[in-house]
Amino acid sequence: MNKFSPFFRALFRSQMGPLAALVFIVIAFAVADYAIGSGNFLTLRNARVITSSTALIAVPAMGMTMIIIAGGIDLSAGTALTLAGTVLASMLKSAPVTSDQPGFASYVAWALAVTVGTGCLCGWINGALISATRVVPFIVTLGTMTIFLGVGQIIAKESTVYAPPEHLPGWLQNLCYTGPNIEKYGVLPYVPTSALIALVLVGAVALLLKYTVLGRNIFAIGSSQATARLCGVNVPLTVLAVYTLAGFFVAVGGLLYFADVKNGNPSDGTGKELEIIAAVVLGGGSLSGGRGSVLGTLIGGLIIVVIRTGCTLLQIPNTYTHIIIGIIIIVAVIVDQLRHGSPEWLFRMLAKA
Question: Residue 324 sits in which domain range?
Answer without folding.
Answer: 4-352
